[in-house]
Amino acid sequence: MSHKTEATVLIQAKAGKAEELKSAMQELIDETLKEPGCELFKIFQHDGNPEAFTLWEIFSNPSALKEHMDKSYTQKFFSLGLTEPLSAIHHAQLSDKQAAPSPFSLIHYCYIRDSYENSHIRQKRPADIGNRAWLYGDERILWCS
């Protein structure tokens, strides 16, 4: 079990304050990521509710989180009063094991055929192998090496 300090925080902007909150959160993110004890600090805006956000944070230990909370920029963020009361869920990772690497991580080149031009085969170097986001439109993979 991990000894890191991890939390998921649900954030609700006060009515009409979502844009101002987003700006303040960006400043908080930029500063927090510079902290030596910060391993992850990501804030997501909800798709269905633009005034709702989720923070996912991981600090190396409880002291690192306490230091973060004591920083002037963190205190400034809370003093702005842009959010409703926060709801935090503290959790710990059950295992330090990581998922197996994607088989696409071993690919150097793929040979692509455009479905609208079956005879057109070209070599393509993946820009984002892990989720294959580098394919566009009607392209099809023939083989990879």
UniProtKB/TrEMBL annotation:
GO molecular function: monooxygenase activity
Keyword Oxidoreductase: yes
InterPro entries cross-referenced by the UniProt entry: ABM_dom (IPR007138), AI-2_Isomerase_LsrG (IPR050744), Dimeric_a/b-barrel (IPR011008)
Taxonomy, superkingdom: Bacteria
Pfam families, per the entry: ABM
KW Oxidoreductase (keyword) present: yes
Keywords linked to the UniProt accession: Monooxygenase, Oxidoreductase
Residues in ABM domain copies: 5-94
Transmembrane feature ranges: none
PANTHER family: ABM DOMAIN-CONTAINING PROTEIN, QUINOL MONOOXYGENASE YGIN-RELATED
Stated name of the protein: Antibiotic biosynthesis monooxygenase
Lineage per the UniProt record: Bacteria, Pseudomonadati, Pseudomonadota, Gammaproteobacteria, Enterobacterales
